[in-house]
Amino acid sequence: MDNRRYPRASYITPCVTCLKADGSVDLKAQEKVYDHLIGGGMDGVLVLGSMGEFFTLTEAERRETAEHAVSYIHGRMRVLIGTASMNTAETLRLSRHALEKGADAVAVISPWYLKLAPEDLFRFYDGLAPQIPGKLMLYNYPDRTVHDIDAGLALRLRRRHDNIIGLKDSARSAEHTVDVVRTVQAEYPDFEVFCGYDNFMPDVIRAGGDGAIGGLSNIMPALLRDWVRAFRDGDEAAQQACAKRVDALMPIYNLDTVFIPNVKGAMAEAGVDIPTRVSFPLAECGAEKRKEIRKFLEKAKA
Hints:
45% of the residues lie in helices and 12% in strands.
Protein backbone atom coordinates (compact mmCIF):
# COMPACT_ATOMS: atom_id res chain seq x y z
CA MET A 1 0.00 0.00 0.00
CA ASP A 2 1.13 3.56 -0.78
CA ASN A 3 0.21 5.64 2.24
CA ARG A 4 2.89 8.25 1.63
CA ARG A 5 1.97 11.91 1.85
CA TYR A 6 2.57 14.22 -1.10
CA PRO A 7 2.41 17.74 0.32
CA ARG A 8 3.10 19.54 -2.96
CA ALA A 9 0.14 17.93 -4.76
CA SER A 10 -2.15 20.56 -6.27
CA TYR A 11 -4.83 21.07 -8.88
CA ILE A 12 -5.12 24.02 -11.25
CA THR A 13 -8.11 24.51 -13.55
CA PRO A 14 -7.57 25.53 -17.17
CA CYS A 15 -10.84 27.38 -17.08
CA VAL A 16 -13.35 27.95 -19.85
CA THR A 17 -14.05 31.43 -21.16
CA CYS A 18 -17.69 32.56 -21.21
CA LEU A 19 -18.79 34.21 -24.43
CA LYS A 20 -21.60 36.54 -25.41
CA ALA A 21 -23.73 36.03 -28.52
CA ASP A 22 -21.39 38.26 -30.54
CA GLY A 23 -18.36 36.18 -29.53
CA SER A 24 -16.92 38.69 -27.09
CA VAL A 25 -15.99 37.71 -23.52
CA ASP A 26 -18.79 37.74 -20.95
CA LEU A 27 -16.94 38.92 -17.85
CA LYS A 28 -19.99 38.80 -15.56
CA ALA A 29 -20.57 35.16 -16.44
CA GLN A 30 -16.84 34.57 -16.04
CA GLU A 31 -17.12 35.59 -12.41
CA LYS A 32 -19.48 32.64 -11.90
CA VAL A 33 -16.77 30.35 -13.22
CA TYR A 34 -14.21 31.74 -10.78
CA ASP A 35 -16.66 31.52 -7.86
CA HIS A 36 -17.41 27.90 -8.81
CA LEU A 37 -13.70 27.02 -8.83
CA ILE A 38 -12.87 28.88 -5.64
CA GLY A 39 -15.84 27.31 -3.87
CA GLY A 40 -14.76 23.92 -5.17
CA GLY A 41 -11.35 24.30 -3.57
CA MET A 42 -9.08 24.65 -6.59
CA ASP A 43 -5.48 25.67 -5.88
CA GLY A 44 -5.31 27.86 -8.94
CA VAL A 45 -6.63 28.74 -12.37
CA LEU A 46 -5.09 28.99 -15.82
CA VAL A 47 -6.99 31.72 -17.64
CA LEU A 48 -6.82 31.87 -21.46
CA GLY A 49 -5.27 28.48 -21.95
CA SER A 50 -6.41 26.11 -24.69
CA MET A 51 -9.63 25.40 -22.79
CA GLY A 52 -10.14 29.16 -22.59
CA GLU A 53 -10.31 29.63 -26.38
CA PHE A 54 -7.53 32.23 -26.36
CA PHE A 55 -6.89 31.57 -30.04
CA THR A 56 -10.05 33.39 -31.20
CA LEU A 57 -9.79 36.47 -28.97
CA THR A 58 -8.26 39.82 -29.84
CA GLU A 59 -5.28 41.16 -27.94
CA ALA A 60 -7.51 43.76 -26.30
CA GLU A 61 -9.98 41.08 -25.15
CA ARG A 62 -7.17 38.97 -23.74
CA ARG A 63 -5.73 41.92 -21.81
CA GLU A 64 -9.17 42.77 -20.41
CA THR A 65 -9.85 39.13 -19.46
CA ALA A 66 -6.47 38.76 -17.75
CA GLU A 67 -6.81 41.98 -15.78
CA HIS A 68 -10.35 41.11 -14.73
CA ALA A 69 -9.30 37.64 -13.56
CA VAL A 70 -6.51 38.94 -11.34
CA SER A 71 -8.70 41.69 -9.93
CA TYR A 72 -11.75 39.51 -9.28
CA ILE A 73 -9.92 36.51 -7.83
CA HIS A 74 -7.86 38.88 -5.69
CA GLY A 75 -5.51 36.31 -4.18
CA ARG A 76 -8.15 33.69 -3.39
CA MET A 77 -6.32 31.19 -5.58
CA ARG A 78 -3.24 31.20 -7.77
CA VAL A 79 -3.69 32.88 -11.18
CA LEU A 80 -1.76 31.87 -14.30
CA ILE A 81 -2.47 33.64 -17.57
CA GLY A 82 -1.97 32.11 -20.99
CA THR A 83 -0.18 34.65 -23.16
CA ALA A 84 0.89 32.72 -26.27
CA SER A 85 0.56 34.16 -29.75
CA MET A 86 2.10 33.33 -33.09
CA ASN A 87 3.40 36.90 -32.97
CA THR A 88 6.20 36.98 -30.41
CA ALA A 89 5.88 40.72 -29.82
CA GLU A 90 2.23 40.16 -28.87
CA THR A 91 3.21 37.33 -26.52
CA LEU A 92 5.64 39.68 -24.79
CA ARG A 93 3.07 42.48 -24.52
CA LEU A 94 0.46 40.12 -23.08
CA SER A 95 2.98 38.56 -20.67
CA ARG A 96 4.22 41.89 -19.37
CA HIS A 97 0.68 43.17 -18.97
CA ALA A 98 -0.48 40.08 -17.05
CA LEU A 99 2.50 40.17 -14.70
CA GLU A 100 2.19 43.91 -14.15
CA LYS A 101 -1.45 43.42 -13.16
CA GLY A 102 -0.51 40.78 -10.58
CA ALA A 103 -0.66 37.37 -12.25
CA ASP A 104 1.39 34.76 -10.42
CA ALA A 105 2.87 33.47 -13.69
CA VAL A 106 2.29 33.33 -17.41
CA ALA A 107 1.98 30.12 -19.43
CA VAL A 108 3.20 30.07 -23.02
CA ILE A 109 2.37 27.22 -25.37
CA SER A 110 4.95 26.64 -28.09
CA PRO A 111 4.19 28.02 -31.58
CA TRP A 112 1.54 25.97 -33.32
CA TYR A 113 1.09 25.03 -36.98
CA LEU A 114 4.87 24.89 -37.50
CA LYS A 115 6.40 21.46 -36.87
CA LEU A 116 9.44 22.81 -35.06
CA ALA A 117 12.64 20.88 -34.46
CA PRO A 118 13.97 20.72 -30.87
CA GLU A 119 16.55 23.42 -31.58
CA ASP A 120 13.83 25.72 -32.92
CA LEU A 121 11.82 25.20 -29.74
CA PHE A 122 14.90 25.88 -27.63
CA ARG A 123 15.57 29.08 -29.59
CA PHE A 124 11.98 30.23 -29.10
CA TYR A 125 11.88 29.90 -25.32
CA ASP A 126 15.53 30.88 -24.89
CA GLY A 127 14.78 34.17 -26.62
CA LEU A 128 11.45 34.70 -24.88
CA ALA A 129 12.32 33.98 -21.24
CA PRO A 130 14.80 36.85 -20.63
CA GLN A 131 12.22 39.36 -21.88
CA ILE A 132 9.44 38.22 -19.55
CA PRO A 133 9.66 40.07 -16.20
CA GLY A 134 8.32 37.27 -14.03
CA LYS A 135 7.55 33.58 -13.80
CA LEU A 136 7.09 31.60 -17.00
CA MET A 137 5.53 28.15 -17.29
CA LEU A 138 6.28 26.12 -20.41
CA TYR A 139 3.22 24.58 -22.04
CA ASN A 140 3.57 21.42 -24.12
CA TYR A 141 0.60 20.22 -26.20
CA PRO A 142 1.84 18.00 -29.05
CA ASP A 143 -1.65 17.23 -30.36
CA ARG A 144 -2.12 20.92 -31.18
CA THR A 145 1.41 22.12 -31.96
CA VAL A 146 2.73 19.00 -33.79
CA HIS A 147 6.00 19.10 -31.89
CA ASP A 148 7.14 18.18 -28.39
CA ILE A 149 8.96 19.65 -25.40
CA ASP A 150 10.69 16.59 -24.00
CA ALA A 151 12.52 16.17 -20.69
CA GLY A 152 15.92 17.04 -22.11
CA LEU A 153 14.68 20.26 -23.66
CA ALA A 154 12.87 21.28 -20.48
CA LEU A 155 16.07 20.73 -18.50
CA ARG A 156 18.19 22.76 -20.94
CA LEU A 157 15.77 25.66 -20.69
CA ARG A 158 15.61 25.54 -16.90
CA ARG A 159 19.39 25.56 -16.71
CA ARG A 160 19.42 28.75 -18.76
CA HIS A 161 16.56 30.66 -17.13
CA ASP A 162 15.63 30.89 -13.47
CA ASN A 163 12.22 32.38 -14.29
CA ILE A 164 11.14 29.18 -16.07
CA ILE A 165 9.34 27.64 -13.12
CA GLY A 166 7.64 24.59 -14.59
CA LEU A 167 5.83 22.78 -17.36
CA LYS A 168 2.23 21.97 -18.16
CA ASP A 169 2.54 18.75 -20.14
CA SER A 170 -0.48 17.80 -22.24
CA ALA A 171 1.29 14.82 -23.77
CA ARG A 172 -0.70 11.68 -24.46
CA SER A 173 1.21 9.50 -21.99
CA ALA A 174 1.88 9.74 -18.29
CA GLU A 175 5.36 8.34 -18.96
CA HIS A 176 6.29 11.48 -20.89
CA THR A 177 5.37 13.70 -17.96
CA VAL A 178 7.01 11.43 -15.40
CA ASP A 179 10.22 11.58 -17.45
CA VAL A 180 10.14 15.38 -17.21
CA VAL A 181 9.65 15.17 -13.44
CA ARG A 182 12.58 12.83 -12.90
CA THR A 183 14.93 14.52 -15.35
CA VAL A 184 14.44 18.15 -14.34
CA GLN A 185 13.79 17.72 -10.62
CA ALA A 186 17.05 15.77 -10.24
CA GLU A 187 18.74 19.17 -10.59
CA TYR A 188 15.90 21.55 -9.77
CA PRO A 189 13.61 20.04 -7.11
CA ASP A 190 11.29 23.06 -7.12
CA PHE A 191 10.54 22.80 -10.85
CA GLU A 192 6.78 22.35 -11.15
CA VAL A 193 5.37 19.66 -13.43
CA PHE A 194 1.65 19.26 -14.15
CA CYS A 195 -0.03 16.81 -16.49
CA GLY A 196 -2.77 18.07 -18.79
CA TYR A 197 -4.93 14.94 -18.67
CA ASP A 198 -6.65 14.45 -15.34
CA ASN A 199 -6.27 10.68 -15.12
CA PHE A 200 -2.45 10.88 -15.36
CA MET A 201 -2.26 12.78 -12.08
CA PRO A 202 -1.50 9.83 -9.73
CA ASP A 203 1.56 8.79 -11.75
CA VAL A 204 2.84 12.35 -11.86
CA ILE A 205 2.38 12.99 -8.14
CA ARG A 206 3.93 9.69 -7.12
CA ALA A 207 6.97 10.48 -9.27
CA GLY A 208 7.41 13.76 -7.37
CA GLY A 209 5.47 16.07 -9.67
CA ASP A 210 2.87 18.61 -8.68
CA GLY A 211 -0.45 17.38 -10.02
CA ALA A 212 -2.69 18.36 -12.90
CA ILE A 213 -3.89 21.34 -14.87
CA GLY A 214 -6.88 19.34 -16.05
CA GLY A 215 -10.11 20.37 -17.71
CA LEU A 216 -12.48 18.13 -15.73
CA SER A 217 -12.05 20.43 -12.76
CA ASN A 218 -14.24 22.95 -14.58
CA ILE A 219 -17.09 20.52 -14.10
CA MET A 220 -16.59 19.00 -10.63
CA PRO A 221 -13.84 20.94 -8.85
CA ALA A 222 -14.67 19.50 -5.43
CA LEU A 223 -13.95 15.99 -6.71
CA LEU A 224 -10.48 17.00 -7.90
CA ARG A 225 -9.90 18.92 -4.66
CA ASP A 226 -10.70 15.77 -2.70
CA TRP A 227 -8.36 13.74 -4.90
CA VAL A 228 -5.46 16.10 -4.27
CA ARG A 229 -6.18 16.13 -0.54
CA ALA A 230 -6.13 12.34 -0.51
CA PHE A 231 -2.56 12.46 -1.86
CA ARG A 232 -1.56 15.14 0.60
CA ASP A 233 -2.99 13.09 3.47
CA GLY A 234 -1.64 9.73 2.29
CA ASP A 235 -5.16 8.28 2.14
CA GLU A 236 -4.92 5.52 -0.46
CA ALA A 237 -8.55 4.44 -0.14
CA ALA A 238 -9.73 7.98 -0.88
CA GLN A 239 -7.27 8.22 -3.79
CA GLN A 240 -8.75 5.11 -5.37
CA ALA A 241 -12.32 6.21 -4.78
CA CYS A 242 -11.70 9.57 -6.43
CA ALA A 243 -9.80 7.96 -9.31
CA LYS A 244 -12.81 5.78 -10.09
CA ARG A 245 -15.05 8.83 -10.26
CA VAL A 246 -12.58 10.73 -12.45
CA ASP A 247 -12.41 7.76 -14.83
CA ALA A 248 -16.19 8.03 -15.20
CA LEU A 249 -15.79 11.61 -16.45
CA MET A 250 -12.89 11.03 -18.84
CA PRO A 251 -15.13 10.04 -21.82
CA ILE A 252 -16.23 13.69 -22.00
CA TYR A 253 -12.91 14.38 -23.71
CA ASN A 254 -13.66 11.85 -26.45
CA LEU A 255 -17.15 12.87 -27.51
CA ASP A 256 -15.61 15.15 -30.17
CA THR A 257 -12.19 15.98 -31.56
CA VAL A 258 -12.39 19.37 -29.82
CA PHE A 259 -13.74 18.91 -26.32
CA ILE A 260 -14.31 22.53 -25.27
CA PRO A 261 -18.06 22.56 -26.15
CA ASN A 262 -18.63 19.38 -24.17
CA VAL A 263 -16.85 20.70 -21.10
CA LYS A 264 -19.09 23.77 -21.16
CA GLY A 265 -22.13 21.56 -21.69
CA ALA A 266 -21.08 19.38 -18.78
CA MET A 267 -20.69 22.42 -16.55
CA ALA A 268 -24.24 23.46 -17.36
CA GLU A 269 -25.50 19.93 -16.70
CA ALA A 270 -23.66 20.01 -13.36
CA GLY A 271 -25.55 23.16 -12.37
CA VAL A 272 -23.07 25.92 -13.21
CA ASP A 273 -25.18 28.75 -14.60
CA ILE A 274 -23.04 29.94 -17.51
CA PRO A 275 -23.58 30.39 -21.26
CA THR A 276 -22.36 27.42 -23.28
CA ARG A 277 -21.50 29.37 -26.43
CA VAL A 278 -18.20 28.52 -28.09
CA SER A 279 -15.98 30.17 -30.66
CA PHE A 280 -16.85 29.88 -34.35
CA PRO A 281 -16.63 27.44 -36.11
CA LEU A 282 -17.21 25.19 -33.10
CA ALA A 283 -20.80 24.25 -32.30
CA GLU A 284 -22.40 24.23 -28.88
CA CYS A 285 -22.86 20.94 -27.10
CA GLY A 286 -26.17 19.60 -28.41
CA ALA A 287 -28.99 17.69 -26.77
CA GLU A 288 -27.73 14.22 -27.67
CA LYS A 289 -24.26 14.84 -26.33
CA ARG A 290 -25.67 16.41 -23.18
CA LYS A 291 -27.71 13.26 -22.69
CA GLU A 292 -24.48 11.24 -22.82
CA ILE A 293 -22.80 13.69 -20.46
CA ARG A 294 -25.57 13.26 -17.90
CA LYS A 295 -24.75 9.56 -17.80
CA PHE A 296 -21.08 10.30 -17.13
CA LEU A 297 -21.97 12.78 -14.39
CA GLU A 298 -24.28 10.28 -12.74
CA LYS A 299 -21.54 7.64 -12.70
CA ALA A 300 -19.09 10.16 -11.23
CA LYS A 301 -21.28 11.04 -8.27
CA ALA A 302 -20.11 9.75 -4.92
